[in-house]
Description:
Low-confidence stretches: 75-86
Shape: globular
Order of helices and strands: HHHHHH
Helix content: over 70%
Mean pLDDT: 78
Oligomer: single chain
Largest sheet: none
Strand content: under 5%
Distance between the termini: 15 Å
Radius of gyration: 12 Å
Amino acid sequence: MSYQSQTYAIANHQEDLEQHLLESSLVDREQLAVAKRWQARQEGPLLMILLQLSFIDLQQFSGLLDWTGDWSGQGRMDVNHRLLGG
């Protein structure tokens, strides 16, 4: 799966991701709103925006990658390789 298709899979499930972020208290509604505004300007994946804004740390980012990896059937290593350029 290409980076673009992985990004699409994450974007396609953004509502699920947003709900998970709020329910798990990883971010609050205000932080999510700020991140979504940045996302609209930068047109990037929400997870990367949250990391850039320091609303989540690397450990949380890694856990969220595991969580989102289930959407595409891809393993975490493949997702990390594409999103982080590894």
